[in-house]
């Protein structure tokens, strides 16, 4: 439900906390298996259309959809060179590193499993969403790592990955100067964008 006109939108932290809790409930629900299958199918079909040369994926945390596992376990999915993000806190930055698909051998400065491969710039990246709007804006965890990377690489095709329950009404989300819209968003319901 949108906020009344005389009230400001919810803070990003409040919205983020709510959406992470909703995502965890959804991921533990009896609908999750079918949603995972549907999201995997939509993602695979989209990647067949886009034909990326190198795909940036992410290591899933906190009940995020596991795109890498979905692509690797599906024998009909395109076999693509992969890369994982590696974040550094000071100065705050992120890069992608070539990844062979095996268990990650590194941990980045945000304590997320990462690759120890050489730095690369994928032409297409999958971006995890805490929340998203229909016009392609994403709510993340608040560190700004993806937004900074996307600002430096505007030519890259960006595909947000989320459950449909993470859709944010535009009235709840005020776009800020650092926010970068995603090219497309994929949910279990299909492709938005």
Quick tags:
193 residues; alpha/beta; single chain; eight-stranded mixed β-sheet
How many DSSP H or I helices? 4
| Cα distance spanning the termini | 22 Å
The domain count comes to 1
At the fold tier of CATH, the topology name is Rossmann fold
CATH architecture: 3-Layer(aba) Sandwich
Instruction: Count the E strands.
Output: 12
Mean pLDDT: 90
Strand sequence of the main sheet, in spatial order?
A: 6-3-2-1-7-10-11-12
**Which CATH class?**
Alpha Beta
Low-confidence stretches: 1-8
Percent of residues in β-strands? 15-25%
User: CATH homologous superfamily, by name?
Assistant: NagB/RpiA/CoA transferase-like
Give the biggest beta sheet: 8 strands, mixed
Helix share of residues? 25-40%
Radius of gyration: 16 Å
- Principal-axes shape call: globular
Order of helices and strands: HHEHEEEEEEEEHEEE
In terms of structural class, how would the helical and strand content be classed?
Answer: alpha/beta
Describe this entry's structure for a reader:
With 193 residues, this protein is of the alpha/beta class. The protein has a single domain (12-192), classed as 3-Layer(aba) Sandwich (Rossmann fold). 26% of the residues lie in helices and 22% in strands. The strands form 3 sheets. Strands 6-3-2-1-7-10-11-12 form an 8-stranded mixed sheet, with helices on both faces. Strands 4-5 form a two-stranded antiparallel sheet. Strands 8-9 form a two-stranded antiparallel sheet. Strand 4 and strand 5 (113-114) form a beta hairpin. The longest helix has 19 residues, at 32-50. It is globular and about 40 Å long. The two termini are 22 Å apart. Mean pLDDT is 90; it is low at 1-8.
């Amino acid at each position: 439900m949108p906020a009344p006109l005389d009230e400001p939108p919810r803070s990003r932290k409040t919205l983020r906390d709510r959406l992470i809790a909703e995502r965890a409930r959804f991921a533990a629900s009896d609908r999750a298996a079918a949603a995972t299958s549907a999201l995997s199918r939509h993602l695979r079909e989209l990647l067949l259309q886009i034909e990326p040369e190198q795909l940036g994926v992410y290591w899933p945390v906190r009940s995020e959809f596991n795109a890498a596992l979905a692509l690797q376990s599906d024998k009909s999915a395109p076999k693509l060179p992969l890369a994982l993000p590696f974040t550094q806190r000071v100065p705050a930055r992120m890069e992608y590193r070539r990844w062979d698909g095996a268990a990650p051998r590194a941990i980045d400065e945000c304590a997320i499993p990462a690759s120890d491969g050489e730095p690369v710039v994928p032409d297409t990246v999958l971006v995890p969403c805490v929340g998203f709007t229909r016009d392609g804006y994403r709510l993340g965890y608040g560190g700004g790592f993806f937004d900074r990377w996307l600002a430096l690489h505007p030519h890259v095709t960006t595909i947000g990955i989320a459950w449909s329950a993470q859709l944010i009404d535009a009235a709840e989300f005020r776009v800020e100067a650092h926010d970068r819209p995603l090219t497309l968003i994929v949910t279990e319901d299909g492709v938005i964008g």
